[in-house]
Amino acid sequence: MSIQIFEGFGAIILEVAIALLPLFILFLFFQFIFLKLPAKKLKDIGVGFLLTFLGLSFFLQGVHIGFLPIGELMGQSLGTISYKWILLPIGFILGFFAIYAEPAVSVLIHQVEKVSGGYIPQKILLYTLSIGVGISIALSMVRIIYGFSLWYFILPGYIIALIMVKYSSKTFTSIAFDSGGVATGPMTATFLLALFVGIASVTEGRDPLLDGFGMVALVALAPILSVLTLGILYSRKEKGQDARNKAGTKINSHDR
Amino acid sequence: MDNIKETVLEVIYSILPITIVITVLQFTIIGLPIETFIQFLIGVLMVGVGLILFLLGVNVGLLPVGEMIGSALSKTNKLWLIIFFGFLLGIVVTVAEPDVRVLSTQVDQVSGGAIPKSILILAVALGVGTFVALAMIRIIFNFSIVYILAIGYGIIFLLAAFTPASYVPISFDSGGVTTGPLTVPFILALGLGVATVLRGKSASSDSFGLVALASIGPILSVLILGVIYG
């Protein structure tokens, strides 16, 4: 196989142009009817659109020649490996480090620390999330090796999440469900998905369409459950503190 | 300049770990042809440069647009305008979302064209649009997100019973990928714009939950696509 870098680049540029066009038209519409921005602002926005266009084209081309083929080839070679158990630690490591370094996650953990008044330190949430997503990907490996239906993971997962909502504060509920998205960044959708499709395509009895996809769903579930758990711990602590304060005042009034 | 440096670091942090793990795997248990690996490294470079340009572009041009449209809409004080354009914006942003494109390309390939890329993107976009509109309604009338979540997931599990099995994983994955680097900041900016004008300062906590709703939409719409199309 020879190295092909710009294969299909023309098609991708066209695709990106079509993808950005609706947004651009909508902006122009608003510009003429409501916004009427001055020329200087318009120039900034024009530059922004141009950068977005170039960036998206390069990104998709890079995914097309880099992450997708290597993901699929690695998946195929991992899927035929005789010691299948190794997929679990590999999955865990991939998930753990992908989250550990993900920029969107650092925004989330900062937000949670602020909302909980420092009770949930950034480090704790970061490790909870990283381990959670690591487990999700390891579980997805289990799913693909044994051919379990996605339902066995998703249904209990969301039912537990909805039950936990009852015991968690409203703020934490919103943050938890919003954070489902932070773990599923561009790397998850590109490399990991291709890897799973690759594994499913060589594993006997697995349908890549049915078993290869679904991994993103599990990855999105992990942060929801992690944040809700910490939210419940936090609300317990709040209640505990109230109780202790009351007890404290009683003791004070009687004994001291 | 700070902005650029931050974006560059951000992109490096999100690409590096996976690249390292792949490199380690390549030289320990996998060993693909060296050309493939070199092509991959070039791909990584392009992805990195692409993401940096993309994020800068979103920050400089697209986000301010989202915020301005959000506040311009609310100033009109016409509910139907806010809801309608929330719907439209949800669609056009999703169509441009990188993660959604990558997922639908793969679905198209793996299904051998049985689930075409353009149809899947359209379904996802309609789902996001509908739920962004719903989120606007929620901000305006201020009802609890828990109800929408419970009802939303309830309908999802019901619908899944009538959809061909192969659509289920794809639908949940679509819900995950919609919340990518363009959609999230954009709808947050839009929501913040609307909430600030409607309610003043207490706005920030209301716009939480927007992302959660935006990821329910595509799950539903792709399941419905499965019922119709499958």
From TrEMBL, chain A:
Any single Pfam family the record assigns to this protein: DUF1538
Alphabetic keyword roster: Membrane, Transmembrane, Transmembrane helix
Top-rank taxon: Bacteria
Record bears the keyword Transmembrane helix: yes
Keyword flag Ribosomal protein: no
Record field: transmembrane: 12-35, 47-70, 90-112, 124-144, 150-168, 180-200, 212-234
Name of the protein described by the UniProt record: DUF1538 domain-containing protein
Species classification: Bacteria, Bacillati, Bacillota, Bacilli, Bacillales
From TrEMBL, chain B:
Pfam families: DUF1538 (PF07556)
InterPro entries, sorted: UmpAB
Signal peptide: none
Keyword annotations from UniProtKB, A to Z: Membrane, Transmembrane, Transmembrane helix
Entry's transmembrane regions: 12-31, 37-58, 79-98, 118-137, 144-162, 182-198, 210-229
Protein's recorded name: DUF1538 domain-containing protein
Lineage: Bacteria, Bacillati, Bacillota, Bacilli, Bacillales
